[in-house]
Amino acid sequence: MPTGEHLSERELRVLEAVVQSYIETAEPAGSQMIARRFGLGVSPATIRTIMSELEEKGFLFHRHTSSGRIPTDQAYRAYVDRVIHGAPPSSEQQMALEAELQGRASALDEVLRRAAQVLGVLTQELGVAVAPALDRVVLERVELVQVSSDRMLLVLDLRSGAVRTIFVRVPGHMAPESVQRVSQLLNERLAGSTLREIRTTLGARLRDAQAPGGRELLDIFIAEGDDIFTLPEPGAVLLGSAQMLAEQPEFASNARMRELLELTERRDLLREALHARRRTGLSITIGAENGDARLSDLTLVTSSYRTGELSGVIGVIGPTRMPYDKIIGLVEHTSRLVEGLFE
Known about the structure:
By secondary structure, this protein is an alpha+beta fold. The protein has helices at residues 9-25, 31-38, 44-56, 73-83, 91-101, 108-123, 176-190, 195-206, 215-223, 225-228, 254-265, 267-275, 324-342, and strands at 60-61, 70-71, 126-130, 139-148, 151-158, 163-169, 237-239, 282-286, 298-307, 310-319. The strands form three sheets. It has a five-stranded antiparallel sheet. A three-stranded antiparallel sheet has the order 4-5-6. A hairpin with an 8-residue loop joins strand 1 and strand 2 (70-71).
């Protein structure tokens, strides 16, 4: 596969102009237009010659004999590696991210889901987040809140600052002092253990517990412990709205949009594509680099986040024709913001 390492400075400047033009217009670039728009200091004939050389090297192609050139995956790779640097988000974009994430409920899944949604809106791509595995995270504290006559909210405060919430069905309204006794007993017997330990030993921990007025609730925890403490599958994929891509030319046809929507249903495929990115910092895979043919027209831009025992990925999925410099800056800023919230 050709790379951009051996391109001359002049070839690289022409390649940059073609890529930028195609990103902005989604139209093939001709030598006359490149000369007029980008002021490269050479004639259209020279640009045409350079574009032909770039095509021979695998960086450009054209659909018809007389049409302009279109970047290949290799062109985008050279553009990302040798031309651009991630531009920091504008102050307006930073404010939008912070307003959406800060001050909200700190439930882990909700923070990541909102991050994917707002990132998708700001980039006009499909926002994506990979949730961390929680099995080995230590429980710090349990809180119980009766929200209705038949539902109790169980709040798990986890080490690393994350919060997980679970609704538990109860037979009826319980006296506040009974709820307090059960909450105190759960903290005494569960806090300080990992969620995996709690799930596998819950019955033994609670079977002989004494909680006047709360025994029925404890029995519910014992009977439904597997469901209550079964966590989302490690590496669960959370997505923003695929409609963010609907306005892009690549998805103008109903068939292409349907393929995209089908892809969002394939969480196993996305999980596999994103799994290796958990410890790699910024990661960009373009088109065929993704390995799976179903992702061969797409680019994945992600940045890993880590705080304590928690680690995962936040980023976007979109067509290979994307404004890489802006998206890289937004993705990296969002991952740092997520880390700060969890800390």
